[in-house]
Fold this sequence. Notes:
The chain is of the alpha/beta class. Among the domains are: about 1-155, Ferritin (Up-down Bundle); about 630-715, no CATH class. It contains 28 helices and 18 strands.
Amino acid sequence: MAIKKSELYSKLWKSCDELRGGMDASEYKDYILVLLFVKYVSDKYTGKKGLIEIPNKGSFQDMVALIGKPEIGEEMNKIIGKLAEANGLKGIIDNADFNDDAKLGKGKAMQDRLSNLVGIFDDEQLDFSKNRAEGDDLLGDAYEYLMRNFATQSGKSKGQFYTPSEVSKVIAQIIGTNKVDSRDQTVYDPTCGSGSLLLKVAHEAPSGVTIYGQEKEVATRAMAKMNMVLHENEDAKIESSDTISDPLFLDGEKLKEFNFAVSNPPFSTKSWSSGIKPKDDKYKRFHGFDIPPAKNGDYAFLLHLIKSLKRTGKGAIILPHGVLFRGHVEATIRENIINRGYIKGIIGLPSNLFYGTSIPACIIVIDKENAEGRKGLFLIDASKGFVKDGNKNRLQARDIHKIVDVFTNQIEIPKYSRMVPVSEISDEKNEYNLNIPRYIDSQEEEDIQDIEAHLKGDIPKKDINDLNRYWEVYPNIRQELFSPSKRKNYESLKVDNSEIKTTIFEHKEFKKYSEKINKTYSEWEKENLSSLTGIKVGTNPKKLIEKISEKILEKFSKLKLIDKYDIYQHLMTYWEDTMQDDLYLLSQNGWNTEIIPIKDKKGKEKGWDSELIPKNIVIDKYFAKQNDELTDLQSELENIQQEMQTMEEENQGEEDTFEEARSDTGKIGKESLAKGMKMMKDNPDFVDELKILNEYKKLFDKKSEISNQVNEKGKEIDKNLFKKYNDLTESEIKELVIHDKWLSSIHTLIDEEMEQISHKLAKRINELAERYETPLPNILRDVQTLTKEVENHLEKMGFK
């Protein structure tokens, strides 16, 4: 049975449960990642020739044979050691001690913990040799998922090994590796951490690139090496040492130069110069720029990256915002870099994106090609584009795409992006200060209260004109809502506040625009239908979503009012939540329903389901009449139960009418009800109570009858449903999945976006109408009138 991508993530994260408690995430990640690595290479290379050799007694299956054995920890170390020795991976995969009783427990506790851990990975669904979606990185994505979660849980000082994948995607797409046509091109990261940034850059290159990385921490370098293998970049060169004091990639006595370089160095590190004398730096990284402050290494890493680029090299580095405006020697360095034309642009990011710090950061984009002729820097303020994700902020798909589009095409957008001339940056006012708010005012305009409107009524024309993006699409709706005021700069609302929304939503312009949205969606659907119906075993899910999502951006870019990136985000959210898992199932199993049993906590089957096609979709299409009958019965049953509950509540007082009809547990059942009625039958003191119980019994019997009908109808539908699932043809499955599940959901999301846009318009107009509805003099007159009435009333009561 194929595994959904989300289920793979869930199973891998579940493996961490076996290790929590004895150590924190910064430690147990080493165990989980090594086990994942051993499992992956064993599945992929056992009995085959490849870049990884699986030696005798050095595979994951050898670990499985140890489940339940007292010596499991010691023997796992031996297995990993053999695999490491056979592949030159000593110091990479053999750092975690699986026989450490301080972390894993002693005796039986360790035996059980490791047995359970290996058992989680020993799952038919986790057979990585069966990942048949050619070119898709199922395992690499799983590793990425683990890295993100480890970083989240590793604490402030231990999560810096990971660059958020969304930021990595931005960098990978803006430095130009998508134009690389040969693996001879090189990419370098001097502070590569777990290698995630390097891999994102390499992924953008159609033919790949040659990867170089250096990482100071030995354990983190080990993660990077494993990451490279899991992403099928086994030949990547990853070394370990301090980049500033001991750079390991050299051409003779000089730093090796690369086509591309990227970096997310530790922010503002104080010990950057440990082990060297910056003034005597033999690699001349600071020559002509000045030496960075002794206790802040931000510019040391930037200058190292610049020096490591070829004459036409391109790169990007993530640094805290302070590098843009701090003074003293850093201001001198910044001036020298700008005057050489090395900085192509700067992207200001939201705060709290990175692990280990919550401060805002920026991406400084370096481009040496034609640097001497560069007359301006392209700035983007992307600080407001994010979504909350737990205790961190995260860029969404729409934010990434917008940043990349705007930067790549140098599109100037008010309050978001701007090409700033070097002459402006260097003038007396700015003096090479690159703080983005100096050049881009991204603050929302203040909603100013109009004093005259408060005094005399009507709505300021300025506030109405501020809604111009709506009036470009709905010019006549404006005329329907407003008329000229007697005063020049004001307009009067022509409809009652309660009619604003109706006026908008029922207007022909609104309906016409809705039709235009639907037509645009239909065109997109028609153009992409063949791609969806053509899904087969081996289809690459990532390439498919990239194709259809780019098409939806293209289609909706031609429309006013609606934001194409909002539409894109709706599609990508649905992809992440639902469609992605479906594509992975289809790319591995093809078009079949894959019915799975549902089990209770004890492992007993209690029903069935289909991961690909939810039952409600098949019911709506093939069993709507029977389901309506079931719904009617359920509704009738609910009404009867409500009547019975009402009768019980109305007759509970000091004397409970139903007291004699209750069982020992306090519930009213068939036997207890009959017993109570029998007791009351010949007793004249219970005539009224018996009458009530008789009415209650009719409802009770009706409830039992309807309950049986509900059960029978449910079983009938389930039986027919099960048969239908097994009889579905491939064309029927495609219809259900593509049209009734995917496209129907996507269309609904777009409709909701359209509704939301117009709701915002109605809400704003209603807000303005209520704000200026009653002029201040009228309020004062009302206050005077009411005050007079109160005084008169008090006088009548004898008070003055």
